[in-house]
Design a protein that fits this description.
Number of helices: 15
Bound molecules: 5-S-methyl-5-thio-alpha-D-ribofuranose, magnesium ion
Structural class: alpha+beta
Shape: globular
Strand content: 5-15%
Helix content: 40-55%
Order of helices and strands: HEEEHEEEHHHHHHHEEEEHHHHHH
Number of strands: 10
Length: 406
């Protein structure tokens, strides 16, 4: 009887045994194999297992408590969800996700391709590195993995089976709380507000009733619009990059939701990179980020419309004008969720290092105010955000307004 027949929280030594046991034919050198915990996310344990003969894999293991907070517990089923969606995404968008070698619902662990030759995108952007392929790659990934899982393309009963299999209530609840409620109400008293911006946040987020109404509508869209199989947490900490490759990972928040949630997350996290670049005076980098934001939106639109024509199977979805209506709703959602991601990473409990590492007090204040003004514009005027340039213009307007508010 194997020790891996019953769940326990594995440590490095167990992980070595686990990799040998689960991947016996990987060619491991048993003398030199080691495991090192390398995770810096909020939820799971991530080990790199390697030997001196050049073999390596990543073992991702879900604990019952979250790393970000011992008090938060979330079903370890998230590991199955992550493994199964990576396998599906590899089918719809090959080469954009790590290969899954095996997954295990007993130990809530999966073993996947080691992408150590890539860099975590958030950290690369914080070094002000640029990635000319990124907009093209991420839009191919999003259009292929999202549109292909909608009712526009999929046989409807098969789609509903996927909806069932990817019901992810506990991780969705985290998003419903952390992204779509707490930044506006601080109802769980765990927001992290940068002290010098306290009054600003009170006025702009906590006291703005018109904003609350719009975010309420957006929250109910998130909960009720089972449009496509989302990644569900598509920020720059869920993407590995190198100059000639982009890999999306960590889709444990996957569920059937509104497409704009994934696209908006990408745009908002590029804005955090821009904040960081502005604070550092990295002009060329900031120009690249703005160009990339513009391209992400515009390429997404072009590829989406083309893929819709090529792949739509639902007879009514082919009705004249439907494709444009469908896309318009996605674009409004994209603006809305760009806004909600900007706000929640600025004042909520899960923040981003792009902004929190800005050491100069005034510059960080300015970055946060820019994010919040831009977020409100995206949320309140979401039906007017139709092209990439609309986002660049909104960032510029927000930065000007933030400067005046200081
Ligand atoms: C409690 S988990 C906090 C955040 O980390 C994840 O990456 C998600 O973005 C979540 O909201
Ligand atoms: Mg994550």
């Amino acid at each position: 009887m194997s020790k891996f027949n019953e769940y326990f929280l594995m440590k490095s030594d167990d992980i070595v045994e686990y990799a040998l046991y689960k991947l016996p034919d990987f060619g491991w050198d048993k003398e030199s194999i080691t495991a090192k915990e390398i995770g810096d996310g909020n939820l799971n344990y991530v080990f790199k297992v390697s030997d001196d003969k050049g073999h390596s894999v990543i073992v991702k293991h879900a604990g019952t408590n979250l790393r970000i907070s011992e008090e938060m517990t979330v079903s370890v089923d998230r590991n199955r969800i992550e493994s199964e969606i990576l396998i599906l995404q590899d089918k719809y968008a090959p080469n954009y996700v790590p290969k899954i070698y095996m997954y295990d619902t007993v130990m809530s662990a999966c073993i996947m391709e080691d992408l150590s030759d890539h860099q975590l995108m958030r950290y690369a952007l914080m070094e002000h590195k640029t990635f000319p392929r990124f907009a093209d790659d991420i839009t191919t990934f999003m259009v292929n993995s999202l549109l292909m899982t909608t009712d526009v393309v999929m046989e409807h009963k098969a789609k509903k089976e996927l909806v069932k299999s990817f019901i992810n209530p506990e991780l969705c609840e985290i998003t419903e709380d952390l992204v779509l409620t707490e930044p506006y109400l601080n109802n769980n008293n765990r927001n992290l507000v940068f002290e010098p911006n306290k009054e600003f946040v009170q006025k702009e987020l906590y006291d703005d009733k018109a904003l609350h109404l719009e975010v309420a509508k957006i929250k109910f869209d998130f909960m009720n619009n089972a449009q496509a199989l989302l990644h569900g947490d598509l920020h720059t900490g869920s993407i590995f990059v190198k100059q000639d490759s982009t890999k999306v990972f960590d889709p444990e928040f996957a569920f059937y939701g509104p497409i704009g949630y994934d696209v908006g997350n990408v745009i908002a996290n590029l804005i955090f990179a821009w904040d960081n670049g502005i604070a550092a005076g990295a002009t060329e980098f900031c120009d690249w980020v703005l160009k990339t934001i513009e391209q992400v939106l515009d390429m997404f639109i072009d590829k989406f419309l083309k893929a819709f024509d090529e792949n739509a199977t639902d007879l009514m979805a082919k009705a004249e004008g439907f494709k444009e209506e469908y896309l318009n709703a996605i674009l409004a959602g994209t603006a809305a969720y760009t806004g909600t991601e900007l706000n929640r990473r600025t004042v909520g409990m899960a923040q981003v290092k792009d902004v929190t590492t800005i050491a100069d007090k005034e510059k960080r204040m300015l970055a946060e105010r820019t994010n919040i003004y831009c977020a409100k514009d995206c949320i309140m005027n979401r039906n007017s955000f139709k092209t990439g340039k609309d986002y660049v213009d909104a960032i510029m307007r927000a930065a000007e307004k933030a400067k005046k508010s200081m």
